[in-house]
Amino acid sequence: NAGVMQNPRHLVRRRGQEARLRCSPMKGHSHVYWYRQLPEEGLKFMVYLQKENIIDESGMPKERFSAEFPKEGPSILRIQQVVRGDSAAYFCASSPPVGRVSNEQFFGPGTRLTVL
Amino acid sequence: AQSVTQLGSHVSVSEGALVLLRCNYSSSVPPYLFWYVQYPNQGLQLLLKYTTGATLVKGINGFEAEFKKSETSFHLTKPSAHMSDAAEYFCAVSFFGNEKLTFGTGTRLTIIP
Questions:
Q1: What secondary structure does DSSP assign to chain B, as a single string?
Q2: Does A83 touch chain B (CB under 8 A)?
Q3: pLDDT tens digits, residue range B55-91?
Q4: Mutation site, B23, B60, B101, interface A, largest A CB count within 10 A
Q5: Cβ of A43 and B105 within 8 Å?
C-alpha cells in the first residue's frame, strides 16, 4: 500500500509566479490535510479537505492561497504570486473516513518550496 | 483552543543513556496525543499515540510515552539511546471532532557517541 505521495519534492519559483503542490492520499483515505513548516519551526495547520469539500481552512492565509480536493485526482495547494516568505516545506497528510477511533494522520515526504 | 509546549528545543544525550523529551499540552476537552519523528529532509513518521485507555503507550523503535492528565503531560522516553535516534521530534494534540493537529515547536535530539 503506497503511502501519501507529494510532488514535486522540490519547487523553485521566482517572486510573483504561481506554485502548485500536489498530494495523493493513501489508498482508501478520503481526508487530506495541508501543513506548512517554516525553517526552524513546527508544523502549522493550513487546511482540511474531504472530496470536493473544504472542511476547515482556518489556517490558510486570507490571500493568494487556495486548496482543492476534486472528486478525481490529487489534492492541490495553490499559491499565487509567491513571495519570499512563502519559502517553506509543505506537508500533506491523509486519514481514513469518519468513524475511526483516533485522528491518526499519515504524512507525505513534503514539498520544499524556495522562492527566489 | 489547544496548544502544545515542548521544553527544550535541543537535547543531547550519550549513546546508551536515557532519552527524555518533554511535552505539555493545553486542552479543554480530552485530548488525543501524538509523537512524530522527522529525519532530515523527510516527512513525519508516527512514533506513538494516545487516544483512550491505557495511559502508558508503547511505540516503535523502543519509545514509549505516558499520558498524565493531572500534569497535562505526555513525555517521550527511551531507556537507551541509539545513534539512529538522532532526529527532530514533534508532539501534537487533537481531539475527537476536531481533525487538525496542533504541533509543538519540536525538539532536536542529538546522540553523542
A1: --EEE-S-SEEEEETTSPEEE--EEE-SSPPEEEEEEE-TTS-EEEEEEE-SS-SEEE-GGG-EEEEEGGGTEEEEEESS--GGG-EEEEEEEEETTEEEEEE---EEEEEE-
A2: no
A3: 899 999 999 999 999 999 999 999 999 999 999 999 9
A4: B101
A5: no
